[in-house]
């Protein structure tokens, strides 16, 4: 299902930084009306300034189960039958070490943003998207941000991988369920994108991750994140406009996609060796 951004409303979560910010700026340039949301209001204002003004800004915490339906009931009446492109982009990282060092609270915190945030937003806006498609001619589109960590389980990332595999499972299910409805679905799997996500990562409270380890993770991420957020956003909007249901970003993204499908068991040993080389002082 191809979707045009012109004359659509584009609702983006996590639009105060990184990929979400670039998506918002480019969507406005492509002629869409953008509703940019985030918990970071100062960052949203900066996104709006970079876009030249004209974005609608809302503080929205995707981990807040009550705030989302309340937000949807305020926004939906303003959409006036226009196609809605919902981009579930907001996300966080957790640097807590292995699962055994990750508290239940830390694990749940990450899932509540990276997985349940996506599900809650979809639950709140999909009825409008289906109705718009039935009566308004279509063009609505759901875009969910998974990751290459939705292809591969990686040590030290149990909560993040659980969330991103979950986003992929949820989105591929909707891809089948929404066939023939006119609502498009895209699951996005970026490789390393040079954003704030690693710098902003929450540190685990167990003490397993030392200051030196945390600093090394941030530095290594910076070295490995080869794609800019602007380039990631360009590829996402191209994919959405072409009706691509599975958007893999970056040469690293394509390599991990290919390796995990070619070597579904032995990729674990291969990636572990590579990680140990990267993270050995
Ligand atoms: N950067 C990468 O290498 C990479 C790779 C694969 C997938 N992703 C995914 O892309 C998405 C965007 O990440 P990014 O790299 O641009 O990160 P980023 O840290 O630059 O931006 C994330 C944004 O989400 C917002 N956010 C955090 N918690 C929120 C909440 N509870 N409610 C609403 N907004 C919240 C932050 O304030 C921030 O503005 C995430 O889902 C991330 O998991 C990123």
UniProtKB/TrEMBL annotation:
Keywords: Oxidoreductase
InterPro entries assigned to the protein according to its UniProt record, in alphabetical order: KR_dom, NAD(P)-bd_dom_sf, Sc_DH/Rdtase_CS, SDR_fam
Annotated transmembrane regions: none
Pfam families recorded: adh_short
Gene Ontology MF annotations: oxidoreductase activity
Domain Ketoreductase as annotated: residue spans: 8-196
Family per similarity comment: Belongs to the short-chain dehydrogenases/reductases (SDR) family.
Name of the protein: SDR family NAD(P)-dependent oxidoreductase
Species of provenance: Rudanella paleaurantiibacter
Organism lineage: Bacteria, Pseudomonadati, Bacteroidota, Cytophagia, Cytophagales
